[in-house]
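Course assignment 3, question 2. Fill in each field.
Student: A.L.
Task: Predict the tertiary structure for the chain below.
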Amino acid sequence: MNEDLVKQFFKMVEINSESGEEREFIAYLETLFRNELDAQTETDKFGNLIIRLDGNNTEKTKPILFGVHADTVQPGKNIEPLLENGIIRSKGDTILGADDKAGIVELFEAIKTSKSYPPLEIIVTREEEIGTVGSKSLDAKQLKSKEGYVIDGDVLNVIVLGGPTYIRLTAEITGKAAHAGMEPEKGISSIKAAAYAISMLKEGWIDNESTVNVGVINGGLVTNAVPEKTTVKIECRSLSDKKCREQADLIKEVFSTASRSIGAQVEHKVEVLMEAVKITENSKFVNIAKKAIRNVGLEPITKLICGGTDASHYNAKGIETVVIGTGVQKEHTKEEFITVDDMEKGVEMIRMILKESS
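Answer field:
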């Protein structure tokens, strides 16, 4: 068992870094990479950490990117990691934080023990878990990489080649207030309009590559008044940019029709959070990842996902990026765990990527 790897992982997860509260952990990483790997570091305006390393035993001059994120979901404070029978879990009152600190420690250990690697640009983002905010805020002009890897998947043998167009819509419905007990006929219920609209929407999987979800409803103030204002937040995603935009237009039309049908009005806000991307499967750097996975005795699988990742934003900024796994299981729950064996495989995979990229 790699005791240094486990010890370093324990140190990382014991530092609180819930989304928005990553400063202490980023400061720790900045010191660690400077002292142990002689890296150059800086933080951008948003607080993302940018780490640069010169190449080692290589003739390559162009850097490759590795992306990880510093934040964890809740409950992620005062984590107490436990190692038993080769499995690392939290004490049980919190998550473990292996998402994404397993990715960070595997990358650190791989670089530390590698005999050769190309110049590296490592991005440690903030607030990934609440909407990939850090990577979206990153100024790509600060980077020279043109391809790279985000180490933030779960299963070790999966390479994520792309993700969806992701649109968030907000429908603000205005009806007419009235006393619910004295003259309800004079009111127009914004909640009723919202209910009509939602009942007409198809949710979940719309087809094999598109989803819709009504996530938030806020309406009314008291029970004895016909509610004048209701806000509904909806999202749609699709691996097809065209389908996602068409679905967003359909959602707007449904809410407009439902509101008009009872005399209410609606205003729409539409945010395109990310755009669909797909990396070519035979790209050289994808084939390197496949070789690294085979090197640890696994068979690589490539896939597209409807979840958002930092890789989506890097791709949008002109850096071809795929997602590789860390070995974490049951992430975002108190049952989250990772095996030491999978962490060691993760290290070996990254070490192979570094070698083959040199």
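Instructor remarks: The chain has a mean pLDDT of 97. The chain has two domains: 3-163+276-356, 165-274.
Grade: pending
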